[in-house]
Amino acid sequence: MSVNQQTHTGPPYGQPQPGYQGYQQPAYGGQPLPGVPHSQYGVYNGPMPGYQQPVPPQGSVRAPSTSGTSLSSGHLGYSPFGQGDVQNGIPASTAPMQRPPASQPFLPGSAPVPVSQTSMLQQYGPPPASVQQLSNHMAGMTIGSTSTSAPPPAGLGYGAPRPPTMPGPPLPVQTAAGPPTSQPNHVSSPPPPPSTLSGPYPGPPMSGLRGPPPPTHPPQPGYQMQQNGSFEQVRGPQTNYGGAYPGTPNYGSQPGPPPPPKRLDPDSIPSPIQVIEDDRSNRGSEPFVTGVRGQVPPLVTTNFLVKDQGNASPRYIRCTSYNIPCTSDMAKQSQVPLAAVIKPLATLPPDETLPYLVDHGESGPVRCNRCKAYMCPFMQFIEGGRRFQCCFCSCVTEVPPHYFQHLDHTGKRVDFYDRPELSLGSYEFLATVDYCKNNKFPSPPAFIFMIDVSYNAVKSGLVRLICEELKSLLDYLPREGNMEESAIRVGFVTYNKVLHFYNVKSSLAQPQMMVVSDVADMFVPLLDGFLVNVNESRTVIISLLDQIPEMFADTRETETVFGPVIQAGLEALKAAECAGKLFIFHTSLPIAEAPGKLKNRDDKKLINTDKEKTLFQPQTSFYNNLAKDCVAQGCCVDLFLFPNQYLDVATLGIVTYQTGGSIYKYAYFQLETDQDRFLNDLRRDVQKEVGFDAVMRVRTSTGIRATDFFGAFFMSNTTDVEMAGLDCDKTITVEFKHDDKLSEDSGALLQCALLYTSCAGQRRLRIHNLSLNCCTQLADLYRNCETDTLINYLAKYAYRGVLNSPVKTVRDALINQCAQILACYRKNCASPSSAGQLILPECMKLLPVYLNCVLKSDVLQPGLEVTTDDRAYIRQLVTSMDVAETNVFFYPRLLPVTKADVDSDSLPAAIRNSEERLSKGDIYLLENGLNIFVWVGVNVQQGLIQNLFGVSSFSQISSTLNTLPVLENPFSKKVRSIIDMLQVQRSRYMKLIIVKQEDKLEMLFKQFLVEDKSLTGGASYVDFLCHMHKEIRQLLS
Ligand SMILES: [Zn+2]
Question: How many angstroms does the Cα of residue 731 sit away from the middle of ligand 1?
Answer without folding.
Answer: 26
